[in-house]
Amino acid sequence: MKILRSLPPAHLDQPCALTIGNFDGVHLGHQALVRTLVADAREAGLPAAVLTFEPHPREYFHALARQRGRDVGPEPVRISTLRDRLEMLASLGVDRVHLAPFDQRVAQWPAEDFVRNCLAQGLQARHIRIGTDFCFGAQRQGDFGMLKSVGQQCGIRVLAMPTVEDAGVRISSSLIREALLQADFPWAAQMLGRPYAISGRVSHGRRLGTRLGFPTLNLRFPWGRPALQGIFVVQVYGLSDDPAQAVPGVASFGTRPAVEADGAWLLEVHLLDWSGDAYGRLVRVEFLEKLRDELPFPDLDSLGRQIADDVRKARAHFQKTTDSDGQID
Predict the structure, then answer these.
(1) Which helix (H) or strand (E) holds 317?
(2) What is the distance between the alpha carbons of residues 34 and 22, in angstroms, rounded to a whole number?
(3) CATH classification code of 196-326
(4) Cβ of 221: how many Cβ atoms within 10 Å?
(5) The Riboflavin kinase domain covers which part of the protein (predicted)?
C-alpha cells in the first residue's frame, strides 16, 4: 500500500475509486465501507484509495479552542494508533492512502472547492463510496447531497454506503470509545470485529520497573489521548517467531502520576514468566481485563507493593482461563 502525505498530492498518474474518513478504530462499519470500495475499484479497474487525516479534526479544533483561551475540557480520545489504522486499511486491500495533514487550510476549505479542486482534480477521484452522514468543508457545510451533485458535474460517480448495525444500534467510533472507557472489551471487540489491541515498537525507558523488580516493555503513545487508562491484564504478540503465540502480562497505560510530571502517555507491560531482549521489536498488546485505575503513591516501596498485587491478580486471571479452557486464549 502506498502512503501519500500531501493534499493534493503531486504527480498522480492514475484516477482512483475513493472513500473519505478518519477511520478511528477501523471498526466493522469502516471495514464494510472499505471492502465495498475495494470491490467497486476492482470492477472499474481503478486503484482503491482512502483519504484520511492526521491529526484527527476533533484534535485540531480542540487545540485551536484552547489556544484561544476557551475551556474545552480534556483532549479528545483515540481508539487506534496511526500505525494500527494504516495496517488495517492495508489488510482490507486498499492500494493507496492519502494521509493529509488537517490544518487551517483544510479546515477552511469551502465545500464545493474541496470537491472540485481536491477530489476531482487533485486526487482524480472518478468513483466515491461514502456514508450518507458524511459532512465536509469549512464549518461542515458540505453533505452527501452536495457531494453527489457537484461530483456529477466533475465526472465523479458518488454512491452511498448503508450504515452497519449491531443489534439495531449503529456501530460507531463513539460507541467503541464508550466501551473502552468502561473497559468492556467484549463489547468493543464485537464492534471492532477483533480484540482491542495497540501495536508499537518497544523503546527504552527509565528502567524504573527493573529497579522495582518488575521489568517492562515500553510503548509510546504520541498520537493524542488514548481511549483507556489504568492497569490491565494483557497478552502480547510479536515476541517469538510464531505470530499467534501470546505472552501473558500486566500493563500500566497512562501518565504515571506516581513517578512522572510531564503527562506523557506510556504503555508499560510487565511480562509474566518471560525474559529476553525486546528492544526495537514490533509488538501488539491485547487488552483482556481492567484491574484498577492509575493511582499516585507516596513512595516507590508502596508502588512496588501495588505492582506485586497487580501481578498476583493477573496470574489469577490467566489461571482461571487455563482452568476453564485448558489453555490461555
Answers:
(1) helix 300-325
(2) 12
(3) 2.40.30.30
(4) 17
(5) 191-319
Beta bridge partner(s), residue 230: 253
Strand ordering across the sheet containing 266-271 = 197-201, 282-292, 230-237, 246-254, 266-271, 217-220
Alpha helices, H only, 13-140: 28-44, 57-67, 82-91, 104-107, 111-113
Q: What is the DSSP letter of 144?
A: H
Query: What's the CA gap between 318 and 329, in Å, rounded?
Result: 9
* Residue range(s) in the chain whose domain bears CATH number 3.40.50.620: 2-170
Residue 217 phi/psi, 5-degree rounding, is -85, 135
d(CA 229, CA 233): 12
Nearest-angstrom CA–CA distance, 47 and 4: 14
Dihedral in degrees, nearest 10, Cα atoms 55, 58, 62, 63: 10
β 246-254/230-237 pair status: antiparallel
Backbone φ and ψ for 9, nearest 5 degrees, come out as -75, 160
Which alpha helices (DSSP H) does 69-165 contain, by range? 82-91, 104-107, 111-113, 144-153
Delimiting residues of CATH 2.40.30.30 domain(s) in the chain = 196-326
CB 126 within 8 A of CB 16: yes
Query: pLDDT of 194-230, one tens digit each?
Result: 999 999 999 877 666 666 667 889 998 877 789 999 9
Predicted pLDDT at 329: 47
Is residue 83 within 8 Å of residue 128, measured between CB atoms? no
Residue 290 has phi, psi (to 5 degrees) of: -90, 135
CATH H-level superfamily of 2-170 = HUPs (3.40.50.620)
Location of C-alpha cell 439495531: 168
